């Protein structure tokens, strides 16, 4: 563990949010090596220094937690709302200290929202291409599937507004391959080991952006709009994954069977056109000399 800002350490230990931790520090409630510290940005080494909050030692770091939440509409993506509206953290029965949301969904949006205490942050980036598919139409309204790979503030609404379309309802059905499958609005579940490995691989080796839609996402769209379940005929390059993070394979796919025989053994082919059972030239018989 490297030296870090005092306000960040308090937030990670679940003392309070960053804003709340900053307030506690400025009010003189925190001491470092028995000296009151009022600078939230003070860098300390928690391994070599003693931090007390109102005379009480800091609790240990909580275990890493990774959750996926089905965020309903009308719930705000923040820890504390001055207007008293329900927040995503109010939906958690026993929230782990230090949980933060990965990306955001605004008040009128619903769908997949990841939460973790592993310190993940998304940075705003340059405008990137997006994939748009028309799913269904009814009168003047249409459902479209928009696939993006960036996290700008209100990016979907801004994209649609730029092309002259008003967003009436917005639902995120997939995030990094994680879908809403089996989650009712307001419910959460832990990420599986395979899903977590998949997300870490994407973060570690992002590679070029891929704007393809997996079968799991298409099924999530169909379930959200109460449409027929789509066929499972899609390209392997879509890299769709099951609940454990393993890639789906096309029907009839099987692993190649190992070839029998000693490692490195060479096999000589018979002469072209020779009848079956004819020995290759220069071959010795087992029974004796030629």
Can you summarize the main beta sheet?
5 strands, mixed
Radius of gyration: 29 Å
Ends apart, CA distance between termini:
76 Å
The CATH architecture of the domain at 66-120 comes to 2-Layer Sandwich
Could you estimate the helical fraction of the residues in percent?
A: 10-25%
Low-confidence stretches: 120-127, 234-240
The overall pLDDT average reads 77
- Give the beta-strand count: 15
Shape: elongated
Structural class: alpha+beta
CATH superfamily placement of the domain at 66-120? Pseudouridine synthase I, catalytic domain, N-terminal subdomain
β-sheet strand percentage: 15-25%
CATH-defined fold name of the domain at 66-120:
Alpha-Beta Plaits
The number of distinct helices, counting runs of at least 4 residues, comes to 5
Brief synopsis:
The chain is α+β, with helices and mostly antiparallel strands.
Topology:
Blueprint: E1 4-5, H1 6-12, H2 18-26, E2 30-32, E3 35-36, E4 43-44, E5 51-53, E6 56-57, E7 66-71, E8 100-102, E9 109-116, E10 131-138, E11 141-147, H3 155-162, E12 170-172, E13 174-175, E14 178-179, E15 188-190, H4 193-204, H5 215-225
Parallel strand pairs: 9-12
Antiparallel strand pairs: 1-4, 2-3, 2-5, 5-6, 7-9, 7-15, 8-9, 10-11, 13-14
Helix pairs in contact: 1-2
């Amino acid at each position: 563990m490297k030296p870090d800002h005092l306000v960040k350490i308090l937030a990670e230990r679940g003392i309070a949010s960053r804003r709340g931790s900053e307030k506690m520090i400025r009010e003189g409630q925190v001491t470092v090596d028995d000296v009151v510290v009022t600078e939230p940005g003070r860098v300390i080494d928690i391994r070599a220094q003693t931090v007390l909050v109102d005379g009480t030692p800091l609790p240990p770091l909580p275990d890493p937690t990774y959750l996926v939440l089905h965020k309903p509409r009308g719930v705000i993506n923040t820890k504390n709302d001055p207007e008293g509206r329900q927040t995503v953290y109010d939906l958690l029965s026993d929230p782990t200290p230090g949980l933060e949301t990965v990306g955001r969904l605004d008040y009128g949006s619903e769908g997949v929202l990841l939460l973790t205490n592993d310190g993940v942050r998304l940075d705003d980036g340059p405008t990137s291409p997006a994939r748009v598919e028309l799913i269904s139409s009814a009168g003047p309204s249409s459902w479209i599937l928009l696939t993006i790979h960036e996290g700008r503030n209100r990016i979907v609404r801004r994209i649609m507004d730029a092309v002259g379309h008003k967003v009436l309802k917005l639902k995120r059905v997939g995030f990094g391959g994680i879908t809403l499958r089996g989650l009712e609005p307001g419910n959460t579940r832990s990420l599986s080991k395979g899903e977590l490995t998949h997300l870490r691989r994407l973060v570690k080796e992002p590679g070029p952006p891929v704007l393809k839609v997996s079968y799991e996402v298409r099924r999530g769209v169909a379930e959200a709009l109460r449409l027929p379940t789509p066929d499972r005929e899609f390209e392997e390059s879509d890299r769709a994954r099951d609940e454990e993070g393993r890639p789906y394979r096309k029907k009839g796919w099987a692993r190649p069977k190992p070839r029998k025989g000693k490692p490195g053994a060479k096999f000589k082919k018979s002469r072209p056109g020779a009848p079956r059972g004819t020995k290759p030239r220069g071959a010795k018989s087992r029974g004796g000399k030629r």
